[in-house]
Amino acid sequence: MLYAPGGVLRHLYFPLTAIVSWVRILENGATTKVAMVGREGVVGLYLLLGAVQTLNCAMVQKAGSAIRLQLGDVLTHFNHGDEVQKIFLRYTQTLFNQMAQGSVCHRHHALEQQLCCMLLFTLDRQDSNTIALTHERLANLLGVRREGVTQAAHRLMQQNAIRYSRGNITVLNRQALEEQSCECYNVINDEYQRFLSAA
């Protein structure tokens, strides 16, 4: 865990090979992912917007490397209002879009569609087709019961879209996941592609 709710934040993290999920934890212990950050972004962006604490948890979804910078060092460049600030602000827009679209997705789309999106977003942030996530962890990120994830994953296995073995999901047919995901994958992905092409 990089950040815990209520903790004072002093660093920003720029994932290189790691993937970090921003997770919201309710009073009853239920959790849901509100955003995912990989090599395209930064963890701790709210620090640049004036926050000193967060209500979210920043949890490592995939272990890997990241660059950690002190807030003061980044703020020095950010406050100059030059290209560094413009890049951070454009990234903020893409992150807000991801959170807004994710909120709509959780409310209106089927679990299997959400699972396909989650797998695709993870693939986009790594170089391997194998994703190290258990059904329990996926359920926590999606904010659903583990049995629901197990059933959805089983249907994807029957279609030879994925293979699951002891906490590892191997994507066998990415196109099948894209066809079964909801519109949210393309909406969020298109926004990130615009950001990356402009950065």
Give a topology summary:
Elements: E1 11-15, E2 19-25, E3 31-37, E4 57-62, E5 66-70, H1 71-78, H2 83-108, H3 111-124, E6 130-132, H4 135-142, H5 146-158, E7 162-165, E8 168-171, H6 174-180, H7 183-198
Antiparallel strand pairs: 1-5, 2-3, 2-4, 6-8, 7-8
Summarize the structure.
The chain has 199 residues and is of the alpha+beta class.
Task: Describe the protein's architecture and organization.
- This protein is of the alpha+beta class and 199 residues long.
- It folds into two domains: 1-82, Jelly Rolls (Sandwich), CATH 2.60.120.10; 108-199, Arc Repressor Mutant, subunit A (Orthogonal Bundle), CATH 1.10.10.10.
- It has seven helices and eight strands; from the N terminus they run E-E-E-E-E-H-H-H-E-H-H-E-E-H-H.
- It has helices at residues 71-78, 83-108, 111-124, 135-142, 146-158, 174-180, 183-198, and strands at residues 11-15, 19-25, 31-37, 57-62, 66-70, 130-132, 162-165, 168-171.
- It has a three-stranded antiparallel beta sheet with strand order 3-2-4. Strands 6-8-7 form a three-stranded antiparallel beta sheet.
- A hairpin with a 2-residue loop joins strand 7 (162-165) and strand 8 (168-171).
- Helix 2 (83-108) packs antiparallel against helix 7 (183-198), helix 3 (111-124) crosses helix 6 and helix 4 (135-142) packs across helix 5 (146-158).
- The longest helix has 26 residues, at 83-108.
- The radius of gyration is 17 Å and the shape is globular.
- It starts with 10 loop residues before the first strand and ends with a helix.
